[in-house]
Amino acid sequence: MNNLKSSKILVLGSYNVDISSSMAKFPQPGETVLGSGFQKGPGGKGSNQAIAAARLGGNVSFMGCIGDDIFGQEAVRLFSDEGIETNYLIVDPTQPTGTAVILVEESGENQIVVTPGANHQLLSEHIDGKIDFKDISWLILQMEVPFESVKRAVECAKAEGVKVIMNPAPVLKEIVELLPSIDVLTPNETEAQVLTGISIETLQDVEKAAKWFLQKGTKAVSMTLGSKGAYIAFMNQNGFVGKHIPSRKVNAIDTTGAGDCFNGALAVALSEGNAFQESVEFAVKAASLSVQRKGAGVSMPFRREIDQE
User: Fold this and answer.
1) Neighbouring-strand partners of residue 223
2) Which residues of the chain have pLDDT under 70?
3) Enzyme catalytic residues
4) What domains sit in the chain, N to C, each tagged with a CATH number?
């Protein structure tokens, strides 16, 4: 990895309060089970990615919308503590801060219910003229805020030559229309299957889906494959390049936020001028550390932990 100071990363997305319970087995409809643990902490894909990027050495700003409530106040303190700039943070007094209720099985798998609250009040008008994209090198986006706001952010970013990383989660079919403006698309297998219509069961299916995304206009793809690592794809002067980047085996305790960790880490590595494959390898390593601890935002590793691996 290069030791260059990273260029500015803007994460535009959601902030939620995560309320998490652990249990031996997920309850069936109508069933009550006893939990073995409880945790409250910061979450939301945007916030998680911003925290991951900041802890890994990124120069990070966050744009999102929070409520004028105790959870919103906690968010402001959190971003300050993590060294994340909040010049673009919006407070909406009419909406509660977003929440996510998370069930975590002892296997490490999770189920999540998100109540967006103020996140859905991040509007296109907040982006027009309010973000200095000339100061930004990389923009990270997800889909827990309104699609029209994401679309407008992409338009403004590309007008200023800003590179865009799109994490298409939660997945929306409308994302396909943005692909020609996306520099790096980071779907997981489920999201790729929904967007492409390709049933993904093997690495050959992953390659087929990656080619579909490239044909639709995205410059590069880094598909996350859970415990199997990631798959990268792009075009060069010799044609299609595709490669599986495996992850080392770890004892996964909680997979919540692993994809967010991957995206934040990827942005940092790219912002430091590293090659695409090297950047993805760095992101896979970071994500493998995050799943070995509980929580979402709180599970994001620090740069020193990566460097010690």
Assistant:
1) 231
2) 1-6
3) 260
4) 12-28+35-308 (3.40.1190.20)
